[in-house]
Amino acid sequence: MKRLLPLLIVAAIMSGCAGTSNDIRDIIESAAYSIDLPAERLNLVLGVAAGPYGDMFMESITPALATKGYTVNVVVYNDFIQPNMALANNEIDLNMFQHTQYLNNFKLEHDLDLSAIAEIPTVSMGVFSDIYANLDEIETGAVVAIPDDATNLARALRVLESAGVITLDPQIDKSRATENDISRNQRGLVFVKVPATELVEALSDNDMAVVNGNFAFAGGLDIAGALYNEVLQEGYINVIAVRTEDLPRQFVRDIIDIINSQGFRDFITEPGGKFNGFQRPRYMLT
After folding, report:
1. Could you read off the pLDDT of 167-221 as tens digits, one per residue?
2. Which tens digit of pLDDT belongs to each residue from 71-119?
3. Do the Cβ atoms of 126 and 231 come closer than 8 Å?
4. Which CATH superfamily includes the segment(s) 5-122+234-284?
5. Strands 190-194 and 228-229: what pairing?
6. Cβ contacts of residue 286 below 8 Å, gap of 6+?
7. C-alpha pair distances (Å), 285 with each of 99, 178, 269
């Protein structure tokens, strides 16, 4: 039975849940159905942070959009705050730099009406060092630089726990973990909080750093050479975000169609391609 995209979008908006994985899947699955749409815009402005996602969009999605009459300009921001504020303020039409958890936390904290429309292949967070070649070499008292924003700080601590170098209190909500929630620090690691944008540079002053994948990629770090690479959990795959009011627009549906195309899949999975090692969303694994 044919489902109607407007009803799904209205339901997502009314529930206040637009941007969850279920909403993303519902919108993607409904992308092929014809609906009456608001007046269209063909000149799109994309916001990204430093890293690989601007390249991913421009090299794979933009050419497909061009065949539909769109042009795309990219604005690169130097932090994780400006791209969402610019989107909310109508300075850009969409952004592509953040995972769902960060988006949901940010829009609640700043009372912004933004929604995710699709998950994208994502380079994961990694533990890097210019001193140690593997986790077994880490010395007692090693200094570790970690992100200073709450969402990515908790994420970095979970990465270190998965790597086996710390243990977090099992009774806490690990999505909100801080240094105070470490129940076992068997190597006596010392933590220094640094803005996520500065973690690559922080490697020169610290023994290790837990670096967001996009900044590691942009900073020229060898992703495969990390001491440990995160396996991304639900909520930590990056997304494309738009203003919630724009969910019904044609450009949103066209982007969803491209993301789900065989051409996009082939581009990402090209052997030896720079995005081939990225973790893929579930819809690309079927």
Report:
1. 999 999 998 999 999 999 999 999 999 999 999 999 999 999 999 988 898 898 9
2. 999 999 988 999 999 999 999 999 999 999 999 999 999 999 999 999 9
3. no
4. Periplasmic binding protein-like II (3.40.190.10)
5. unpaired
6. none
7. 19, 33, 11
Phi and psi for 134 in degrees, rounded to 5? -155, 170
Among 20, 94, 25, CA closest to 58? 94
Amino acid identity at 100: T
> What are phi and psi for residue 179, nearest 5 degrees?
-60, -30
Q: Domain 126-229: which CATH class?
A: alpha beta
- Name residue 147's beta-bridge partners: 194
Domain spans in the chain, listed from the N-terminal domain onward: 5-122+234-284, 126-229
C-alpha Rg value of the chain to the nearest Å? 20
Return d(Cα 255, Cα 56) in angstroms, integer: 13
Q: How far apart are CA 28 and CA 257, in angstroms?
A: 7
The pair of three-digit structure tokens given for residue 166, joined into one six-digit string: 């710390």
Spatial CA neighbour of 152 closest among 97, 212, 109: 212
Sheet containing 114-119: which strands, arranged edge to edge?
A: 71-77, 43-49, 94-99, 238-243, 114-119
> DSSP class of residue 226?
S
Scan for tokens 């300075």, then name that residue: 91
Write the DSSP symbol of residue 73.
Answer: E
Distance, in Å, from the CA atom of 17 to the CA atom of 200, rounded to the nearest integer, reads 34
pTM of this prediction? 0.70
B/e letters for 220-240, b = 16+ CB within 10 Å, e = fewer, are ebebeebbbbbebeebbbbbb
Equal CATH topology for 5-122+234-284 and 126-229: yes
Helix (H) or strand (E) holding 229: strand 228-229
